[in-house]
Amino acid sequence: MADEKQECELFSAGHRACGGCGPALAARLLLRATGKNVIVVASTGCMEVFSTPYPETAWEVPWIHSLFENAAAVASGIEASLKKQGRNEKIVCICGDGATFDIGVLCISGAFERGHDITYICYDNEAYMNTGIQRSGATPYGASTTTSPTGTCAPGGNPLPKKDMPAILAAHGAPYVATSSIAYPNDFVKKVERAINTPGPCYIQVHTPCCTGWGFESRDTIAISKLAIDTGLWVNYEMVNGVVEKAKKVRRKLVEEYLEKQKRFRHLFRPARQDAEIAKIQAIADANAEKFGIDIKLRKPAE
Amino acid sequence: MEIMEGSHAVAEIVKRCRPQVVSAYPITPQTHIVEDLAQMVANCELDAEYITVESEFSALSACLGASAAGSRTYSATTSQGLILMAEVCFNAAGMRLPIVMTIANRSLGAPLSIWNDQQDTIALRDSGWLQFYAEDNQETADLHMITYKVCEDHDILLPAFVCFDGFILTHTYEPVDLPSQEEVDAYLPAFTPYHRLDAAKPLSMGMYATPDYYMEFRYEIDRAMYRARDAFIKAGREFNEQFGRDYSGLVEEYRLDDADIALIAMGSICGTVKDAVDEMRAAGKKVGLLKIRTYRPFPGPEIVEALKGVSTVAVLDKNISLGNGGAVGTEVKSALYGTGISVYDYIIALGGRDVRKRDIAAVVDLAEKGEGDMFYGLRTEVL
Ligand SMILES: Cc1ncc(C[n+]2csc(CCOP(=O)(O)OP(=O)(O)O)c2C)c(N)n1
Ligand code: SF4
Ligand SMILES: [Mg+2]
Q: Do B259 and B333 have their domain in common?
């Protein structure tokens, strides 16, 4: 594949994303990994809107967007069509967390069950950003969004935990499921290459911080995504035939280092510090660390 | 000529139209079509990818993807399945993808009903899909060939519903003359996509449009709808030349020449109406039928032309735009505006209620008395 890769970018600059947009970086890296021989299927959301305002497009590969929730089904049809025509383009869906965790689950489940040779990538910015930062099934516990706001009766923000989509797709028998983060571009590129070269339906969930929706400075996008990994709130791992292999190990930091830098978690610190809530989020990170065995050295247990 | 079930005739003709990707989801009374096609693929009689999806929504989405990638595609559904597809329907038309879908017309719940009326396709009249209605199983089969030709015409590039009445036609055995594979191939050329997803020639499909561009996209679809009128007539004439069956009219006249009263209808009910017209004619009543074959594009000018000399029109609507009468009646009134012809609308046969010749005669009596714009045949005792 490497020789087919382009020197120049296949995802052009000049798109309309916010400065420091995590998903925009993921799009660029994605096409670096796929090269030209690919058909991209998008869902309605920030990436679709900022990259294809008619008559301009940032995509120098064939690209299609149909609806918010049907990318996996559209990709199924494309795959069947290419098979019939004897064509060999790779088919990659790149869809938001809302499109993936929530409204598109039916189509994704069907496509993975049928075993189409497609790669489905969820760029996870942990809310519906395009419509103005509403909660999705990928929004982490405690984050405030416009539909999980804090209020006098709800001081904690989003009351629900993040859905475990990778496990759901692994349970469908997907041969390759991985999580990644734009904090580690090479890791993401390598995982995309592996997925598109693995026959059958593969899933990658890439953590793509959104400065606008999470409330941090646009220059800090990479730092924030690194912190998500360093705290254990995001774990980069690969699952091959349902078995976790290779989870990225870290020397873990406390979750509040990550939380305090984002407006979506500000209510945990101001006006009064909510220790119990912060502890719950720390417990989520601890459980992740335990489940994936990511700790390089055991920290002293948190009080 | 063979005696066969309507659904089977559809499957046989679809097979001969050589779709490369088929995706559908079972729903009464469409099921026999998709079962037949699945069996044909399993027997290698039909060289297509058959995608067994988890919903109608995905069936049409898969067809959309396959069509965008350059394949001739096919689906079939009805009623709840069609309404579940509604979002994809608008989308496929907007993307100018010539998907052909058979609709075994059925009513919509609630209350749940599996029986025939035409509410499902009428509800999608604004979706940008061509809509053709068949009277019998021969016409249903033949319309599929014509439809593929019209849709895939590079001047049209719109998806289409071929509509035939659930149970009344789908499950009825009638003699059907099915063209051979060679004959179909001679009539219907292989699909040559106008645009397709192709790594050798990248393009973006389904982009987002600001107010500076959106209206022009809609205008283009509307223009294509109007061009489909001529494309349908042309494809119908070519069909007639090759097969000796004439569907080149957007409407079809039956004993209208010297008629005072015209009935207007779509689909299988036209058979009953024709028999009723014969009886009324025998009794000296000057009545005829105007059958609408293409509901989209709507044959307004043809209706005006055909009804010259008629004083009264009775429209039979197997649908209701709740709060405003039947859809066909409303559009006929709009087409005839200013002609001075009296148009009366009758909501009839909803949810599979039987229509007999005497009901047609009763409707004509009502129209003659100037009583219309009403439900016909209501059982007031259960209200
Ligand atoms: C059926 C349907 N419901 C709702 C919407 C409105 N809508 C458009 S994008 C979007 C959110 C997208 O969220 P996500 O998939 O996470 O992508 P993001 O914008 O965050 O990148 C919503 C709710 C829609 N387009 N279609
Ligand atoms: S709102 Fe977030 S995801 Fe959307 S373009 Fe801006 S930074 Fe990117
Ligand atoms: Mg999102």
A: yes
